[in-house]
Amino acid sequence: MNKPFSYLALMLALPIAAQAQPTFGSAPRDWAVMYANNDVDPELEGPAHGGRPPHHQAKHPGGELPPYLAKLELSEQQKTAIKALIKTTLGEPGAKRDEFRDAVREQHKLSFSSEFSEDAAAKLIDNQLAEQRRAMLQKAKLDNGVFKLLTSEQQLAMLADMAKRDH
């Protein structure tokens, strides 16, 4: 390609590229900063509205089966039992999400206030860690309950599929 022509093309392209919109829309500020500073209306999920980028919600709490069971041929009785186990173990989808969001907001408010104290921040963090521990233990119990509802052949197939993903 002719060098003067390539420089001309570059000079013409730069002003156009400088006016390009961000990938997630035209948020007035970076969405991560807005989310961290609690400047985001929780109802506005799309960053084109100044919110955070859309998230893909997990399907299984709402009545669908966990993705690790997708390749198994489950009987209708197994599917019903697994869905019931999920509902009794996890409750309604998103029930704890608001509590978690409030705890994060409380921590941010404390961090950016004149009343900040290391002890108060440590207490908030300890509460969040305790909740995370509880949720992880609940998930482990749920996974074990689902595992016990499978036949031995299904258990082996699921473990083999998980082993492939780990490597």
UniProtKB/TrEMBL annotation:
Keyword list, A-Z: Signal
Residues in the signal sequence: 1-20
GO cellular component: periplasmic space
Positions of region (Disordered): 42-65
Species per Swiss-Prot/TrEMBL record: Methylomonas koyamae
InterPro entries tied to this protein: LTXXQ (IPR012899)
A Pfam family of this chain: LTXXQ
Identification of the protein by name: Zinc resistance-associated protein
